[in-house]
């Protein structure tokens, strides 16, 4: 294993310190317990807080800022944050209108956010994301995994919260987006957890893992490596099948997110996007919004995921609204 | 070699088509000859055009847009674009005030941009970037290589051009920034050129290549892998030494760019940034602006580069000005 690190024990602290320094105009980090907040705390709105294991950067700390999260609680690599982190973050950013947790559906995250919620002295609610259509139940999951679609939930719910919407409305929007979003990932290589020092799984030069999780969890099956168009066709088919299973409309405008898992060149991500957009159009969906890049990673995995979110006026408006975070930034 | 591709021959076309579709609000692509322009062409300003081999994404096409480039000419992977591309791009974006080429100093790029310049029916000038302080002369280079500092030149010269500044002023600013900018890269793994199908160089699990080029060219020396702080200390020392060799002030405000070469997790880049910022502060430089991420890549290389640009009021103002491109986007 070759990584840029000093002591595995201090990797998260050193990296978060660098992150907070590089983006000191936007965010602040606190340690013991560890959480990231906006530099300019918001007033009189629902506080939106997310978190989870590190190793998925820029998720979640990269999405703290105006129009998106109020705080993020990073755990160690692929390890849930602990309830004291969520409690301290909530204490720091609560602005009189309650707290909404956005939590990817993994057993450790669910348990720790639930424990935090029980102790929380504020009105609160939780949105669980479960957009990964690859498998039902997985290594760390009862039910479907939350993956790259989480970014769409965080962006749009963050936008709604800025308008002064109440806790119930924020939760409703988050659950609607999760329901209208499907993702599937594919790995060409494993990731390597720094503390483990070796690849999470073995895979040969002629194989791919279809439906891989963002922690290197097994997907649907080990397949033979083949040309990109054939891989993308299977991924798009899985998403379209999932839309059908969810009884979503068989046509409409979508947001298409092609997400790199850490070690995949942008040139390849755009090639994947090109095929995915064409196939989705052929199936009746119109790609109205796009995002291509590394947004929810699996450390250093070579691989990519495709996410489609079926838009409506509401979701589109909140996706388009201004956002000003380290990792997503645009104006109207 | 496992990559997301269909036919190597069509990889660039498919990827650029995806890029142009994903960012159809900002850019347009033309083929035969191949170039990328802004969707909304600028009026009455110097046209800023860059280009070079592909494989360094988001450079250069990702920087086409308001406040930065007017056009980019992508060659095949690690291969210079041809003069007909630059001529067609210039024809498409020339707005009556002349054309400035921004060219990374590699023999093929220099030759092809020079040939295009000779044939250009417009007033023109060229800025060559050569920020890489690792080596003098290299595999594809007479003189120093142009690497990640090119992004700073493109951003700031693009900003100046938007103000209506003339060709000579744009060239002067570009050359000033290049003079005040030093970079050095390090590789933990090789890149793999798709058409070659195998790693460009061999490197073991206990080695790193200090001073590597963005095409996998040899650096200063093969070294033993060690902790991040020791690697970063050597990189920072090389930059500070280069500042001295260029007779730049030994203190002042800098822009610090920590750039991933393709396969390095953001978590590690922020860790590198943390150490580099601390060491540069200790040496008398104040980190006033920061950029951390994959901005000038070497396909799928695990590695990173550090770039420092000594700011002045002029450079800082043009760095801060609004930019609206696929890969860099901010408002004042």
TrEMBL record, chains A, B:
PROSITE patterns (alphabetical): DHAK
Domain DhaK: 7-330
Nucleotide-binding found in the keyword field: yes
GO terms for cellular component: cytosol
Cross-referenced Pfam families: Dak1
GO MF: ATP binding; glycerone kinase activity
Membrane-spanning ranges: none
InterPro entries: DhaK_1, DhaK_dom, Dihydroxyacetone_Kinase
One annotated GO biological process: glycerol catabolic process
Keywords (A to Z) from UniProt: ATP-binding, Kinase, Nucleotide-binding, Transferase
Name the record gives this protein: Dihydroxyacetone kinase DhaK subunit
Organism: Methylophilus rhizosphaerae
